[in-house]
Amino acid sequence: MKKPGRVSAIGMFFLFAVLLSACSSTKLVSSWTAPNDVIKSNKVLVIALMGQNDRMLRENVERIMVKNLSEKGINAGSAFAEYGPKVFEGLNEAAALKAIKDKGYDGTFTIAVLDKTKQKTYNYGAPYFNPYYGYRFWGYYNNFYGGMYEPGYYSTTKRFILEANYYNLDNDKLLYSAQTRSLDPSSPESLATEFTNTLLADMTKKGVIK
């Protein structure tokens, strides 16, 4: 028969961890804005600078950034969709800029993965929390004397540091730069969505996007 009032502390931790994973956190680490400047480009090219191992993130972050910029009235396009997976490969600066400007783009929004790490942590077992047995000495003593502990376990935390830079190509000027940190995103799409929302909220707040 199950003893009343018995709640596993480690069970509560697992429930809390599941709730946290459902709303993975992305934080703005730092951002910089050129004084008295806003996005004035007629057309912005979003370029995710990521390798083949991050192809899903690359596609998602470009697609979602383009969608959100468009919703804010900024004409934008995806480098992956426009030029394919090997965008500007083998081109020098002059040829790459010509390829961009020939498509009507006069601004670029680059997004890069600065750091991607996995950290494995051992979490020690925790005793059962049982206030029901705390009313009397012997009930409390007898409940814990036998070593009422949950076993320890390992957990892995994934961390991403992303950087975004917006350039006006007419004068080759950096107008905005920011870095974000994301912990345990549930998917490339989730990471791309949180990153984009965090970034555009900061750009709107600072007046880079009107």
UniProtKB/TrEMBL annotation:
**What keywords were assigned to this record?**
Signal
Q: Which domain of life is it from?
A: Bacteria
Annotated signal sequence range: 1-22
Protein name per the record? DUF4136 domain-containing protein
Q: Which source organism? A: Pedobacter metabolipauper
